[in-house]
Amino acid sequence: NAGVTQTPKFRILKIGQSMTLQCTQDMNHNYMYWYRQDPGMGLKLIYYSVGAGITDKGEVPNGYNVSRSTTEDFPLRLELAAPSQTSVYFCASSLLTGGNTEAFFGQGTRLTVV
Amino acid sequence: AQKITQTQPGMFVQEKEAVTLDCTYDTSDPSYGLFWYKQPSSGEMIFLIYQGSYDQQNATEGRYSLNFQKARKSANLVISASQLGDSAMYFCAMRDTSGTYKYIFGTGTRLKVLA
Question: What is the mean pLDDT of chain B?
Answer without folding.
Answer: 94
